[in-house]
Every structure is written in C-alpha cells, then in structure tokens.
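Q: Fold this one first, please.
A: Sequence and structure below.
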Amino acid sequence: MCREKTDWEKAMEFHGHICVGLARGYRAAKVGMEILDAHRSPDEELVVIAETDNCGLDAVQVVTGCTMGKGNLIFQDYGKNAYTFGRRDTGKAVRITVKSLGESFPEFAAIRDRVHGGKGTPEDKEKIKKMQMGVITELLQGSHDDLLQVQDVQLD
C-alpha cells in the first residue's frame, strides 16, 4: 500500500534538497494557507506575491499551487523574505514576513555567516551540519509567532 507524500516531502523533491530556506518558505506558506482557510490552488483561486526568489519560494509554489505560468505567482524583488497570500474569491490576504535567522536562531546564523563568508573553521562546518536539522525541525514545528510576522493586508 502506498501513501501519498506530505507537502513537505513534495517540496523537498521539487527543490532537490533539504535546507533551512526551504523550511522557512514552507512554514510561511502553511501558516498563510491556514489563516486564509485555503487549499492548494488547481487554477487561479489563490495569488502569491513573493518579495524574494530564494529557496523558500519553491516550497511556497508546492504548498499553494501558485506558479508564474498560471499568473498567480507574482515576483516583486524587494529582497525581503516575505510573501503575501491572497484569496481572489474573498479578497482576504495576509503578508507573512519570515523573521531573520539571527533573530530566531542567533547561534546558527552566526556560524552559517562565517561558513558562507569563507571564514568558517572545519569545526564550524561540522557544527552547522549538526545544527541544521534541529533548526529545520523547529521551523516546521515551532510556534509561528516566534518565526513569522503576520499582517492582514488587502489584495489590490
């Protein structure tokens, strides 16, 4: 007997690997859909305005069903880790900003910045590998109040 993949498994498969960025976008999308009382969009019922094109956007596409090709995924490059999720039938929308890693996970963020900046030690590289799954788990399961800023907005 086969079971259907979870949205998280589908997002990992679509993106190609597991990472903190994917988990951040996934959590934002799940919370946005929950607040809107919405389900994955087979057509154009939902709209997403993405202010970033990082890893998390892949998870947003999987969870919401919004894509550039359908015209219901709009990219506005503001360089912010934020997404607006809206329902076209009700006009209800919510803007979700993902809090910085430094705010939510300061130790992880500091080590990651050193490693990505080319100044990380071999110990830093090992530590970040070990910490990553814990951070991802917290992103997926922790209180969204600690991870996200949620604001009601209007669709234009």
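Q: Good. Now the second chain.
A: Here it is, same layout.
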Amino acid sequence: MKGKLQSRIWRNFPEPLIKQIEPVFEEIEGEGIHDFCEERKFKKGNYLIHKYPDRAVLLLTNQCFAYCRFCFRRYLWKEKPLKNNDPEIKRIIKYIRQHIEIKDLILSGGDPLTLTNQALNNWVKLINQVKHIKLIRIATRALTFYPARINSGLLSIFRQSKKQVWFLSHFNHPAELTPLARTGIKKIKDSGVPVLNQTVLLRGVNDRAEILLELFQELSSLGVKPYYVFQCDPVPGATHYCTELGKSLDLMNELSNYSGIMVPKFALEVPGYGKLCPGPGWQIARKENRYEIVSPAGEKYKYPAVSSRQRLIGL
C-alpha cells in the first residue's frame, strides 16, 4: 500500500525534482551546522531579517508548496507562523519605516505565494506606503510546484503595486521547466514583472556543467535572468546535497566561457563574513580538512569540507 501511495504522489514528478523533496536516511546520518547563514543574529523580532544594509527579508509564512530537503531555513518549519492580525506586523512596518537605508524588501518564508491573494495584497499595500522602499522581491517555488498559482488575481496585485515587483524563481534543473511553468513565466513577464532565477548547486541533482548550462540557456530563452548559483549550505539534514567547494568552483570556472547573460554569479555563505561571490583578490584553498578563504585585505575565514561519506569536517 505504501509503495502504491508513494507511486501516485510522485508519478508526475521528474526524478531530479523528487530527489529535492523526498526524505532519505542520509538526513539522519549526516551532520550539519545550525543557522549556518547566521540569520538569527540579524533578526528583528521573529519575522524580519536585516542582514545587509539596503535590503531586508520578510518571513511571511513557514509554509511551502513542497518542502525542499536542502532548505537552509528548515528550523522555520516548526516555528509559529505569522498571522494576519499579529501585533508584530505593526512593529515590522515601524522598523522598516525607521530604516531608510532599506530599499529592497524580499518577501520570503516559507513561500509567500502560499498566502491568499488577499493576504499578499495586504502586505503589498503596507509596503507601498513606505516611501523609501524601491522594489519588492517575491521569492517563491510556485512555478515549479504549483504554476497554477500564477492566476489573474496575483497578476493584478503585481500590476497595481506602486513599487516595482521582481519575481524571484527557484529552478534547479531543466526538467522543472514544464509547459505549465513556461506559461506561468510568460504571464508574469506580460504583467510587467522581471523574473530572476536562483539555483542551488545540489550533489546528484545538478552538479554537472552540462545540466547547469542547459538550465541557464533555457531560462534565458524564456526571458528569465539566471541570477545566482548558491553553494548548498551544510545545515543539519542537508549535508548529503553539498558538493565539495573545490568542485563547485571548477564547475563555475567551466561555465565562465559561456555568455555572461546566461551564466549567473556563484555565491556561498561564509561564517563570519556573509554572502561571498569570489572575485579578484580572493583566495580559496583546501587546507587539510577544511577550506581557507582569504580576502583581498588578508582576512581569513574557514569553510567546511565534505568527506567522501558526506560528513562535515574542519569547522
């Protein structure tokens, strides 16, 4: 019975997508570092993260259309979600108003599009009243897991927003670009909303140059700008997805000969530093059981290596 039920659940999902959401024993066997991105120290209350000066992340929900097993915010799954009448909403808006350096507000979670159109529109209206906000980003996997969510009501919210809306999709494999996803992308673009894509580099899913190149080329042909490729964060339950950092750098170097429009930036979270896009002057080298990262100013940071058994070492 279990096998039949599982077959019914997965039968319309391509294998690369199943690998991203199906629980496996490696989640229990692997190690990991809680809050690897160090977001908790930048939280302003329970639902707002202000880690970088000009942008902030608003955690509108802890619900998703599907739960990616490599999620770096897995801790949110069991926390109290933000309710429509929560008094913290006023505190959030007050904080944003007081910090005029915030220009870019990212609606995330969880997946913000699991909210109803009315609930999402209420947030957009609140944000529209903050003069110094220049744009609203919506980070979602709806195009992958529920492309029907891109409906007329949602598109109307985008068009009526006084702030420019940017749609941030999350495709990790070309197989996710289904006909329904492609239709959803066209609807979003036709409503005047630019679409960017973020990809997470995942061992056994997309850690080959030809897979990534196909994804980036297809996205570009649909008018979606490949924005970032992220190194998978070694949080508990997700280390089996982590590629060795050296391999990740080699992959991106291999892709560097292709069109700059099609190839995104590579980024990784470095403890004690934040998001790093390695560039001129940065040095990254394997030192015994870990990586040593040296900034152009000579500051040193450590990054964990992953053993052949997908164990974290060196941090």
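Q: Anything worth noting on the second one?
A: The chain has one domain: 2-280.
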